[in-house]
Specification:
The longest helix is centred in the C-terminal third of the chain and has 37 residues, at about 165-205. This protein has helices at about 15, 25, 50-60, 65-80, 100-105, 165-205; strands at about 30-40, 120-125, 130-135, 140-150, 155-165. α3 (about 50-60) crosses α6 (about 165-205) and α4 packs antiparallel against α6 (about 165-205). It has six helices and five strands, in the order ααβαααββββα. A hairpin with a 3-residue loop joins β3 and β4.
Length: about 200
């Protein structure tokens, strides 16, 4: 059951699009699939990176427990079986990647961008109030965007998912998994993120 203290977490995309964010122009040709408000309150002294430290813990927890974790394991197995997830985005700047697009628009070199790391997503940029990362496989080219935005007298976090499905199969795949994402994965992630953030705040007292 949702915590009544917090507003509805799945929000209208216009609430996100009205924010002055770099991602709007960078991914204007991608479809904005989902926008969620993570149910947390940040003070003006809480940076986006500070929240991301707790969000990473929540995401790791999500992948290893509960129904959402089971779905991730099933998807990982199917991806390996059909070789959907062979990493197409390597550590250098590949034309067609969002990293390449951003570097070209900002006149940056490879060394000016965040290190790709070893995760599923490749980071594109880390700004004061925005983080963008991308993933590309044989079903979709997608991006995950998190932003720190004002919310009355505090700050909150928007999480937006941008997609470019690959062909009919990619579109069908995205439609098939949508109920699982909307009703299981994202709500579980919202709850885990809120729990970790509140635990962090309590640890400071």
């Amino acid at each position: 059951m949702a915590n009544p203290i917090y507003p509805k977490t799945k929000i209208d995309e216009q609430e996100h699009l009205t924010q002055p964010l770099r991602v709007h122009t960078l991914l204007s040709d991608f479809e904005l699939e989902d926008v969620w408000r993570i149910p947390v309150n940040l003070a003006s002294t809480h940076s986006l990176q500070l929240f991301m430290d707790q969000f990473a813990k929540a995401n790791d927890q999500l992948r290893h427990c509960g129904m959402a974790g089971l779905l991730f394991r099933i998807r990982s197995f199917i991806g390996r079986l059909f070789k959907w997830d062979e990493k197409l985005l390597q550590d250098h700047l590949i034309p067609g990647s969002i990293r390449f697009r951003y570097a070209r628009q900002e006149n940056l070199s490879y060394h000016d961008l965040p290190h790709p790391g070893s995760g599923v997503f490749n980071p594109v940029y880390k700004l004061e109030n925005e983080l963008l990362s991308e993933i590309e496989n044989k079903t979709v080219h997608a991006a995950l965007h998190l932003s720190r935005v004002p919310d009355r007298d505090t700050w909150t976090i928007h999480m937006a998912v941008y997609v470019k499905p690959k062909g009919r199969f990619g579109k069908g795949y995205m439609q098939f998994i949508k109920p699982f994402r909307v009703w299981i994965v994202y709500p579980s992630l919202m709850n885990a993120a809120r729990t970790h953030w509140e635990a962090y705040l309590k640890s400071l007292k």
